[in-house]
Specification:
Elements lengths: L8 H5 L1 H16 L3 H8 L1 H14 L8 E5 L5 E5 L2 H19 L15 H16 L5 E7 L2 H4 L2 H8 L6 H8 L14 H22 L3 E5 L2 E6 L2 H18 L4 E8 L4 E3 L2 E3 L4 E3 L1 H16 L3 H14 L6 H14 L1
Antiparallel strand pairs: 1-2, 3-5, 3-6, 4-5, 7-8, 8-9
Helix pairs in contact: 2-5, 5-10, 8-10, 10-11, 12-13, 13-14
């Protein structure tokens, strides 16, 4: 695992780091919430008070606000008060760069310089390269209820291979102790935790199975190969490994030639094209019609901006044209 980090707590509670964390928490969509406005009113005093609470060991995070979202699938989201989001950003500012150095380069979720579009381009580029030498097959796997199935004992064993600062670890455990199963969807640190946990899987695939063309976006994984039977062997090994060493199971998996488009990151991908999945387009058009019917121009603009970014990598002139027309309507 390489270098271990022993003196991180002082960096986390440094007042300049807390100021930077405050700015990031505001950028995260909390600009006009009551909790942000109250914190902002006496910003420096509140940051100093927060710093002292963390240093003294008296800091405890507030209650979670939980709510459901239904697209693209039903999920329970857990949101912490604004002050606690500052603390999470402060921790993430220091820890994320440490773990980033060890993460697998073709893991694309919640990482600087990665993301959906880069992942889609990398997969298609690899398919095109492999197709020059024969039929390409893919193994597609999804973990079942990934965030809710993460074993926190295994997670913290992995974290402690890099982090040995006891006070930093104690602070981390406030957002998910090392006993039990599951981490909340919606926490900034849950994204880091989930990537650290997923790295166990990445490491096994790359160092033990020696899979050459492997891509992951959180709980969504793909392996490309010319060897169909080899992919079946990979699947059996991965199913066993994830169940025994990670307490995870696949919700679905399949092996197919690339002539049947690969569904990955919301796209249908082959060597020749990458299109948005039909069910995603149907949901998007339904939502646009709903906002127009309610004359909710503000939400319509936000949705069109978001969806326009999502379809940027798609080879779909008609869909992009449709979105452009709706943007003109919303002006």
């Amino acid at each position: 695992m390489g270098r271990k980090y022993r003196n991180l707590f002082s960096e986390i509670v440094d007042i300049d780091n807390l100021r930077n964390a405050y700015i990031k928490a505001v950028r995260g969509g909390n600009r006009y919430t009551a909790s942000h406005l109250a914190f902002k009113e006496n910003l420096e005093a509140n940051l100093y008070l927060l710093q002292q609470k963390i240093i003294s060991g008296s800091y405890m995070h507030g209650p979670y606000h939980t709510f459901k979202v239904y697209e693209p699938k039903e999920r329970m989201i857990s949101s912490l008060p604004f002050r606690d989001r500052i603390v999470q950003h402060a921790v993430n500012n220091i820890l994320q760069p440490i773990f980033e150095k060890m993460f697998y380069p073709h893991s694309y979720a919640c990482r600087p310089g990665r993301g959906t579009h880069r992942g889609v381009r990398a997969v298609q580029s690899t398919i095109r390269k492999l197709e020059q030498n024969g039929t390409v097959y893919y193994l597609k796997m999804d973990f079942s209820k990934y965030f809710h199935s993460i074993d926190r004992g295994i997670l913290f064993s992995e974290i402690q291979k890099k982090i040995t600062d006891k006070r930093a670890l104690e602070l981390l455990k406030l957002f998910g102790d090392e006993k039990g199963v599951g981490i909340p969807i919606g926490n900034l640190l849950s994204q880091l935790f989930a990537n650290i946990y997923g790295h166990i899987f990445d490491r096994f695939i790359k160092t033990r199975l020696k899979a050459k063309y492997y891509f992951r976006y959180m709980d969504d994984t793909v392996i490309l190969s010319h060897d169909k039977q080899g992919l079946y062997r990979f699947k059996r090994a991965l199913s066993l490994f994830s169940r025994i060493f990670m307490r995870l199971k696949f919700s679905k998996w399949y092996i197919s030639p690339i002539s049947r488009p690969l569904n990955f990151l919301g796209y249908r991908i082959t060597a020749r094209y990458k299109l948005i999945r039909k069910d995603s387009v149907v949901r998007a058009k339904r939502k646009i019609k709903l906002y127009k019917r309610k004359n909710d121009i503000k939400k319509l603009k936000l949705f069109l901006a978001s969806w326009g970014g999502h379809i940027r990598s798609a080879d779909s002139f008609n869909l992009k044209n449709y979105i452009k027309k709706e943007v003109l309507y919303a002006r």
